[in-house]
Fold each of these.
Amino acid sequence: MPISVVIVGSGPSGFYVAEALIKSEADVAIDIVDRLPTPYGLIRGGVAPDHQSTKRVTRAYERTALNEKVRYYGNVELGRDVSLDELRAAYDAVVLTIGMPGDSKLGVPGEDKKGVIGSAAFVGWYNGHPDFKDLDPCLETGNVVVIGNGNVAIDVARVLVKTPAEMTEADLPRHVSDAIQASPVTDVYMVGRRGPVEAKFTNVELREMGQLENAAAIVDPGDLPEEVTGDWSDRDKRLRERNLASLKEFSTAPRDGKAKSVHFTFYAKPVEIVGPDRVTGARLEKTRVVNGRAEGTGAFVDIECGLVVPAIGYTLDPPQDVPFDQSTGTIRNDNGRVEDGVYVAGWAKRGPSGVIGTNKPDGQNAAAQILEDVKNGSKPGRTQFETLLKSRNIEWVDFAAWQRIDAAEVANAPPGAPREKFVTTADMLKLLGSAS
Ligand SMILES: Cc1cc2nc3c(=O)[nH]c(=O)nc-3n(C[C@H](O)[C@H](O)[C@H](O)COP(=O)(O)OP(=O)(O)OC[C@H]3O[C@@H](n4cnc5c(N)ncnc54)[C@H](O)[C@@H]3O)c2cc1C
């Protein structure tokens, strides 16, 4: 009997576990489960819609999904449709690769007002994630404040100020591109607690901000140090030097008549979201960096705006019975082992950091642990799982069905775009006509 493995979550980390198990050439039967009909996690729902080349990594995941040892069960949610105990009973190994889908809170007064939308929700909305289809993006405003100095903050700012022509090859759903193009947004303030040297942007993403057709990157030269000082590794220092050079270029570049602006607002932390029940502004306290930490200076500035997007990190609200470590916000584990027969990889294990490839060693680690712990298969795996799903009338989407969804999305694409996404599970199931 093969070793039966169920991987819960079809993002990069889930696929890297499956890939490593296949490469091991062990006798395994691998089932990949996702709460959405569509696979690929944040590659579909997080990576920016105008960065299609990054999304091409899914071609490798597709090869994995089509391997004879692998089955895909979309539209099945751990905690809603099946429990961890049921998966443990059915499979020799359960791997949790469920990511970190929630938004970290700012922790300042007023953040529950209408018009404060965390980046997980905002990015989910513009990427057509079914959870956020009905989000009101609060774009009837000239100014937007994005809080955070990482690549996600840059993605949000860029998507808001690019021209329709610049977005032709993106896969923004139609209702999203309509909403963005109809909005009066002209100014995006990207707020970082610390300075340009501490910012976490990668240089390719930062440089792109200097090349936008109708949006200028605005940097106050007074915020820019002469050179990068501080205790950085050689690699980090080089990255920061490149970023500093790009920001210096932005600070002296002519506007060239560009109508929109992205303001790099360093040394400022949000202390209050202002407004009656709806956001009218963000109150920031100016900071200085002492020993790498941002300290308030007691000087305040208000930015008038109708939308605040905190892009400051992610959280996980774990499904029932999944062991959770409050201190790290991740699934409790010892280097990937959660409990007997249960493993974790990816963001749910390490927290929300790193690039797509960072999840690969995690996946390999989980696969190696499974093969170390389980020498022979003893549990039925997918036959028991499918019986359970059928007994509950759960309409799962297999990989062939996903390929039909994919083909329909590609066929519906506007000129130049790679696809027009389905943004509700109901529409995807309607296309499929019936249960898999
Ligand atoms: C906005 C954004 C942009 C990014 N852009 C880039 C980029 O350009 N380049 C780059 O290298 N990295 C980028 N990253 C990072 C990269 O996306 C992550 O490193 C990677 O997706 C993490 O993989 P994961 O498998 O751990 O989680 P995820 O990709 O989040 O996958 C988790 C999967 O689990 C499923 N799931 C969750 N809960 C359940 C449940 N209860 N039952 C069943 N299934 C469940 C989800 O539907 C999802 O498919 C970006 C991240 C974000 C947030």
Note: Residues 103 and 120 are 6 Å apart (CA to CA).
Amino acid sequence: MDGIKLVNVGKYYTVKREQVKVLEDINLDLPANKITVILGRSGCGKTTLLRLVAGLETFEQGEIQATHVKRKAYVFQEDRLMPWLTVRKNITFGLKDKEIDHEKISGIIQMVGLEQFEAAYPVQLSGGMKQRASIARAFAYNPDFIMMDEPFSALDYFTREQMQKELLKIHHKTKCSILFVTHSIDEALILGDKIVILEKGIIKSEYEIEKDHERDLLSDKFVALKKQIMDDLKVV
Ligand SMILES: Nc1ncnc2c1ncn2[C@@H]1O[C@H](COP(=O)(O)OP(=O)(O)OP(=O)(O)O)[C@@H](O)[C@H]1O
Ligand SMILES: [Mg+2]
């Protein structure tokens, strides 16, 4: 299977010489061309899981196998823009000069709604705008696998909805694999082909979402699934 596979992965952090288990026995397929959403409460291990998949962190147990994954991009939970570069230069930062397709970059900047700000510096942007620039940078890199850690949480409701739609459009067009972290059940239901519920470092449940389902949060099917996920997460 193309994509990334985690087999019996366990991760510990050492805090004051004590080993604290953060992820336990994670078995998970992140299939190519799909959006896999990791959903869970604060502190359950979502960022840690993403960092392991990205190769940014070591782990003590198990194995992570990648098949036909060449270019990985990562959208961090906080924006990590270079303050001395303009928005446009930040977005093309990971690319060699000859790799830059200026027209395509303009399209990506437009998609995230920053066309009026491409010459601005990060300090001149709001939190949500910085986050949109980070998302644009990830897509400018032409990734075949993209990891996104709560990328829309700094955005207002309307911009968030719009970015979710744009993400689905890009995904449809590029077919890139996406590993997306959120603590929003609605967002998971809107975006996910597969939803993985993480609780205290353990996979509690997994849901495969039908391919041609309607992403309508008010439909009976969706309300039922949301209720089930709320039960899993013990949201009353
Ligand atoms: N570098 C570290 N050293 C020690 N413990 C850590 C470290 N990074 C994370 N942890 C612990 O691992 C657990 C999971 O952290 P993680 O950042 O993966 O959570 P999260 O699900 O992303 O939370 P949030 O939704 O708040 O971003 C937490 O208990 C955290 O305290
Ligand atoms: Mg996190």
Note: DSSP finds seven helices and nine strands in the chain.
